[in-house]
Amino acid sequence: MLTLFSVSMFAAEPVTVKSTFTKATKPENNQVTDLEGKVTWDIATTVGQGEPTYVTGQSNSVEAIKFGSSKSVYFSKVEFSTDYFKDYNVTSVNFYVANNGKKTGTLTVKQGSVTIGTSSAEFGNAWTEMTATGTKGEGGSLTVTYEVEQAFYLSYIEVTYEAAGDPDPEPESTVKTIYCKCEQDWWKKDGAAVAVHYWKDGGEGTTWPGVRMTAVDGETDLWKIDVDLAKYEKIIFVRVNASGDIADWGAKSGDQTIPTDDKNLFTITSTSAVWGDPGVEGTWSKYDAGSTPEPPTPAEKDSIFFVNVPGWDNLRVHLWGGTAAGTTWPGVEMTKVSSDGEGAPAVARGAKLSDDGKINGYDVYKYVADKGAYKNCIFSNNGADQTDDLDWTSGSYFYDGAWYATEDAIPEPIPAAVPLEGNIWKVTAETPVRAGSHFVDEDLLKIDGVYETTIKANTRTIAGEDFTHAIQVRTDGYPSADNLVGKEKSGSTSLVITAKENVDVTFYYNRQVVDEGGTENDNKDLIVFDQADITTKLTGTFTIDAILEGNSYLNATKQLALKKGHVYTVTASGTTLQLHGIKLEDHVPAMQIAGAWDVKDEAWVVNNMTLAG
């Protein structure tokens, strides 16, 4: 079956359609029609034998009609005709055919009395696309004639045609009237007008700042100009003087692509002055002369939130990098969010937002901008304390140094510090153990950063102190210089501590024994290293308190001096170790009485001290 794809009856441009075979069924009454019954090709055979049959032609599995059943059956002429193209001018016909033997086939195409073209080719057992073209038809029946002294296969007929009538009609006008609506007082200051600079990429354009637009009679703040879309495709609206030699007066839109649809009005939406790049913002809409312009589509809004964990009293956000002009440092004020929206935009209620509009007890602030206006931001306390440069993260909350996509994603508040018993911090059943837990925060030491560990019920008396629980501390190998930025081995359960002052610490722990002597260098002991030098273990005073459980474990203490502001990792190498507590004491520098003070700790500075007696 030959299929002709449906097309418009009044195509303005030449149209090409291809008739192809769709299923292997013999046609009724020696005819071939398309699937929708719109086109009928009459087949007339003047010389030949038998009906056309549907086959898979030749060796390349092309679906085809076969004319002739063997080499002993010859066709000298076959005609295909249809009245479907009588209202069109046919310009060419392609005929995809294969002969069953090396013979010369000739294709002739006529429309009415006009011969459009002929084509001849010699081939054997190979598919060939023959093309008849050269003269445009003038309507009437289309006849495609193929002559060859051999059986052959036909796969498709392809017809190119165009609407009858004037072959060269007048082209439609490509001139479009462009309007600009500019109500902004800052733009109109000093009687400024509007000009347009337009151009085509790689082609001609106006000389900057372009051509003044004309004020529209009877309208307010509306300007117009005619632009030929065949010549120009880009446009910029420019603030210029109203008369005399045209001059750029410091404001413009960004590059705009002239709409090819019915939108013809550019409405400037920036309400505050934008001098220079990135230019004013605006929207395109449809304007019909004599009617009210459609209001511009409101820009899609975008928000970011800041949870005031630092407690800043003059919170500002500095913005830059998008379609809008960046702010001047330290930026603009943010709006405090309330739970009911009174006096400020309300944030969507979530599990974290309390009745007073706070998250985890901290005030929440919001900044709203047009979508895409900014790509980067910095939060600061009026330019003093500040965050790093941040990516604008749409709809997200910046909380304690990180972005969270929703308020419900913000973690629960860090548990309160574990109370000190005297000056010893002890592990208890309630001691928090998750990553990032805050263990103790007092004047001398901050301890946090336990990684994936557990609390063990483990009664010990070490150096006269009673303990009931312990934290599992271990690592999968001693860290190396290029190990991890966090300075703790992946999979470890190390502890991270920060010395807030110069402090002496005593660690209470029990560990496996290598021999009855036990040393801090036997690869079974507690290790502490300064994160500034992660390959060097700190040394101090190591004491064995008791060997327990058949010499399998021992209780021990280790005393070290930590320096103010330094961060340390407490871990264990090659084993699991149980840490029960930490004793904290002010650090007193060691001294030698040899006629003068000898300061052993470089973090302490002693001036004008004399020896009593």
What does this 3D model show about the protein?
The chain is 1% helix and 44% strand. The protein starts with a strand and ends in a 27-residue tail after the last strand. It has one helix and 45 strands. It is an all-beta fold. Residues 1-11, 22-37, 341-351, 483-487 and 590-613 have low confidence and may be disordered. Strand 17 and strand 18 (222-228) form a beta hairpin.
Task: Count helical runs.
Answer: 1
Could you tell me the radius of gyration in angstroms? 44 Å
> How is the main sheet built?
7 strands, antiparallel
Shape: flat
Helix content: under 10%
- Indicate the mean pLDDT: 77
What distance separates the N and C termini? Answer: 123 Å
| Secondary structural class | mainly beta
Which residues form runs of ≥5 with pLDDT under 50?
1-11, 22-37, 341-351, 483-487, 590-613
Record field, number of beta strands: 45
What is the strand content? 35-45%
Distinctive features:
1 helix, disordered C terminus, single chain, 613 residues, seven-stranded antiparallel sheet
Brief characterization of the structure:
The protein contains 1 helix and 45 strands. With 613 residues, the chain is an all-beta fold.
Please render the helix and strand layout as text.
Blueprint (H helix, E strand, L loop, with lengths): L1 E2 L11 E7 L9 E3 L6 E8 L5 E5 L4 E6 L9 E6 L5 E12 L3 E9 L2 E10 L3 E7 L8 E6 L4 E12 L11 E7 L3 H4 L4 E7 L11 E2 L1 E2 L6 E7 L5 E7 L7 E5 L3 E2 L7 E4 L13 E4 L15 E7 L7 E7 L10 E2 L1 E2 L21 E2 L2 E9 L3 E8 L8 E2 L5 E3 L2 E3 L19 E3 L11 E4 L3 E4 L6 E8 L2 E10 L20 E5 L3 E10 L13 E5 L10 E8 L4 E10 L4 E6 L3 E11 L27
Parallel strand pairs: 14-22, 24-32
Antiparallel strand pairs: 1-2, 2-13, 3-4, 4-7, 5-6, 6-13, 7-12, 8-11, 8-13, 9-10, 9-12, 14-18, 15-16, 15-19, 17-18, 19-20, 19-21, 22-23, 24-29, 25-26, 25-30, 27-29, 28-29, 30-31, 32-33, 34-45, 35-36, 36-39, 37-38, 38-45, 39-44, 40-43, 40-45, 41-44, 42-43
